[in-house]
Amino acid sequence: MVVVEEKPARLAVGVVGVGRVGAALAAALGLAGHHVVAASGVSETSRRRAENLLPGVPLMDPAGVLARSDLVLLTVPDDALPALVKGLAETGAVRPGQLVVHTSGRYGTAVLDPALRAGGLPLALHPAMTFTGTAVDVQRLVGCPFGVTAPDALRMAAEALVIEMSGEPEWIEESARPLYHAALAIGANHLVTLVAQSMDLLREAGVAEPGRMLGPLLGAALDNALRSGDAALTGPVARGDASTVSAHLRELRLHAPEAVASYVAMARATADRALANGMLKAEYAEALLGALADDGTR
To answer: Locate the DUF2520 domain: which residues (predicted)?
Structure first.
């Protein structure tokens, strides 16, 4: 006897906030066999993005999106999320049994309490990925970790949705969401700033194509850091080369004073980690920290 497994129920999916994340996740759910039935976007950029990634999906106000949806993605900026949820619940837009999903890294499901009280089923699914607003984002979801927070009864459903989007669920406790998000922001957002600063300085030094010079170096550094952690530290700070650090700071004050503060902050953090793991010898640390404390008048 052949047993035919039933496919999971297909859901009518709506998205409120057709930003980079919302459009990509809705498109991924569509590829998984769900039906994207409505979207809400205010800016012209959002509307064009919907046309490109969600062709044929009608645009309407948030209440209209929820009226059509079994599952609604609330993909608005973090600061706008609490007021949006409260407003939708108070106006009766949330239906009992409706899956209400937000993608904020900062929040767990507590921010969805107004929807829960209205009978909604709250899920927090945060893709740990940077998005461009183009079709490449859907491809990047393959193997992408998602920070998942949900009531215990909905955990399996939340993880199943992530898997359907080709992602990998990682359970995050409600109380740990802010720390989880801070960790990702330090790693991803600040990395962009550091790389952009480095490229600016290389241009100032006369390098025509900074990206070509940095690419192999940064790729190797990232790979080493992910594999080895602090053991991958290298460079003048980890070695305790105080005179080199002083020379760096003199050049930065002359050519790029706006980069001094970040250099000093990251050098001090690097020194602390190098000291803690024994890479930076204590006898070199004093001179190094002195160089980092130099106000530039010497």
So the answer is: 144-270
Going by DSSP bridges, is the β-strand pair 121-127/145-149 parallel, antiparallel, or unpaired? antiparallel
Average pLDDT, the chain: 93
Residue 87 has pLDDT above 50, yes or no: yes
Closest Cα partner for 122 from 141, 146, 149, 142? 149
Q: Domain residues of the chain, as ranges?
A: 12-172, 180-293
How many CB atoms are closer than 10 A to CB 110? 14
* Residue 7: per-residue pLDDT: 46
Q: Which residues contact 115 (CB under 8 A, 6 or more apart)?
A: 85, 88, 89, 94, 100, 122
> pTM score, two decimals?
0.87
CB 202 within 8 A of CB 214: yes
Please tell me the distance from the alpha carbon of residue 36 to that of residue 82, in angstroms, as a whole number: 24
CATH top-level class for 12-172? Answer: alpha beta
